[in-house]
Amino acid sequence: MAQPEHTAVLYHTEGAVAFITLNRPERYNAFNDDLLTGLNAGLDQAAADDHIRVIIISGAGPGFSAGADLGLFAGVTPEQGRDYIKTHYRPLMKKICDLPKLVIGAIHGTAAGVGCALALACDLRIMAESASFRYAFINIGLGPDGGAGWFLARAVGYSRAMEIACSGDKIPASQCLEWGLTNRIAPDEEIMDRAQVWANALAEKAPIAVGITKAGLQYSLEHSLEAAIGHEADLQVRAFASDDLKEGVQAFLGKRKALFQGR
Question: What is the pTM of this model?
Fold first, then answer.
């Protein structure tokens, strides 16, 4: 698979898994225009590749992401800062949420600021034992942005989200696991291997079913039970019509492993 021409983000594939790596280690993978462009390009490439079923987002160097590159905002007006968030961060986070493929965040070192938003935008997370989250916005006089507050409140609830966002303290991986900010923890030296094993297992599931599961759960965050059940029924139409459903039923009855083709 060709590498998108954005050196701030690296892209490669292994089997059904795409690896998107933030690659500004000298700046702790802080967000700038090149990194955002590369992230979007990598996600678009993975979305368009029918062979890819799971995406892993990670960071090169000592940490996942330090958040925004504050140098970008030197000399900008408040309105320009607002517009940048709306035109750059919002489309990226929405793209991850809308993507009908699973996205795993593999977090080592520190995820801070909008780096936390990126990590929490992922469907699933695995953290290295020494990794941490830090909602550092408050420490420099900002509130959460880029979806960081939205994702946090939904992950841990309002009161705990306020504690995290208003303290600006580092949250170690063990605490993240207890609070539901990560699904799994791995030894530092095994983080990417463990992420890949997890991704490979998930890639064996029916792609259509994965896509409608993600869409249904995303919808349920914003709608009533009645509306969510109706939406699930509408989504299920595609599964009912799929060859994967036939394969799944036949495999179950035949007591064998299903081989899903995504159609």
Answer: 0.93
What is d(CA 55, CA 41) in angstroms, rounded to the nearest whole number? 13
| Alpha carbon distance 217, 213 (integer Å) | 6
The 10s digit of each residue's pLDDT in 153-183 is 999 999 999 999 999 999 999 999 999 999 9
Only one residue has tokens 């914003």, namely 222
Domain that holds residue 227: 207-253
Whether residues 221 and 168 fall in one domain = no
Domain annotation covers residue 68 = yes
Instruction: Quote the radius of gyration of the chain (alpha carbons, Å).
Output: 19
Which helix or strand (DSSP H or E) is residue 132 part of? strand 132-134
> Could you give the CA distance from residue 23 to residue 29 in angstroms, rounded to a whole number?
6
Name the token pair of 53.
């079923």
In this structure, the answer to whether residues 62 and 172 fall within a common structural domain is: yes
Contacts of 189 (CB under 8 A, 6+ apart): none
Q: How many structural domains comprise the chain?
A: 2
